[in-house]
């Protein structure tokens, strides 16, 4: 893993999500502001499947520091904005995986925003 300075911030050079954030890889973006970005998952498991993440590279939930609390809280606000704009009062699910044995494949913290009919698997 190599950390480099690019377009106003440090990024992990081989992080696919950092490349999407920096517009080096195309994605269908559904929301973006200074702190966060959301885009359509390329392998959706629900009718609506977005990935919401901080623009700052934070590898896992275990790597969140006190000073990043605002960014992580902002993710919830982003989810609410997206839900209000596309779901018309319907429900949704947000899932975050932490580490490989929990299903995390890309080590840039991200939340799966899932919605649509027939969300059968209920994790809780």
Could you outline the blueprint of secondary structure elements for this entry?
Elements: E1 3-6, E2 9-12, H1 16-21, E3 29-32, E4 36-40, E5 48-54, H2 69-86, E6 92-95, E7 111-115
Antiparallel strand pairs: 1-2, 3-4, 4-5, 5-7, 6-7
Query: Radius of gyration over alpha carbons?
Result: 14 Å
Distance between the termini: 34 Å
Indicate the percent of residues in helices.
10-25%
The share of residues in extended strands comes to: 25-35%
Structural class from helices and strands?
Answer: alpha+beta
Note the run of SSEs as H and E: EEHEEEHEE
Mean pLDDT: 87
Global outline: globular
Q: What does the model show?
A:
The chain is α+β, with helices and mostly antiparallel strands. It has a single domain (29-115), classed as HIT family, subunit A, CATH 3.30.428.10. The longest helix is centred in the middle third of the chain and has 18 residues, at 69-86. It has helices spanning 16-21, 69-86, and strands spanning 3-6, 9-12, 29-32, 36-40, 48-54, 92-95, 111-115. Helices cover 19% and strands 27% of the residues. The protein has a five-stranded antiparallel β-sheet, with helices on one face. Strands 1-2 form a two-stranded antiparallel sheet. β4 and β5 form a beta hairpin. The chain is globular and about 35 Å long. It starts with a strand and ends in a 9-residue tail after the last strand. The chain contains two helices and seven strands.
